[in-house]
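In this section we walk through a basic example: taking a raw amino acid sequence and producing a predicted 3D structure, encoded as discrete structure tokens. The instruction is simple. Fold the sequence below.
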Amino acid sequence: MSAYRNFVVDFPNRCLELLDHYEADAATQEREVTFLLLVATSAFVVPFERLKDGHPSKDSLQLEGASVRLKKLLGTPCAKSEFIPKHGKNWLHGLIATFGDGPDTWPPSNVSVEEEPVDYVLSTIRNALAHGNLYTHGEPIRSLVFYSEKHEGFGPDSVMVGYKHLTVPVMELGEFLLSWLRLLRTLGPSYGAALDEIAKAA
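The resulting token sequence is shown next.
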């Protein structure tokens, strides 16, 4: 078993290999949603965090090209995003003041994320995956609800004003995850050399 070259290109690339290899098996066992969440929790959250300025890994400095490109993507409206499936038309979001009894009791949202920046979507997914803020809808599962605390202000003056939530069709979550992993494969100046090394060691 070869060591990871890094957790921004190499690690997600291996996750993509697992996704390609085992996705059909997961579907046969009716565990495709579980498999998607298993992969997403690592393959999305880990590189997303490590490319942030100030992360102790300093990956944002070592892979400066990747960090700059990611920052540009984060400011792009979802309607113009290269990796939000169908430009976010089916990705619905909203804000509720109190959690109550959970998403099953919240008013349904019919507002798409098309005009929202990509950062809004990715940060919501990141927070939900990192804190276990997930719900499912349907039997079998048709969509997933990701939710995250909404704050106004900064630092000690920050005040929680409710929860932002994002509803994503299961099939489109898979498309998004594939697009995210393929995007990461293109990041970094030494991507080609890294893949050569990975192929030799595999």
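Looking at the output, two observations stand out. The chain has one domain: 10-201. The radius of gyration is 18 Å. In the next section we compare this with other chains.
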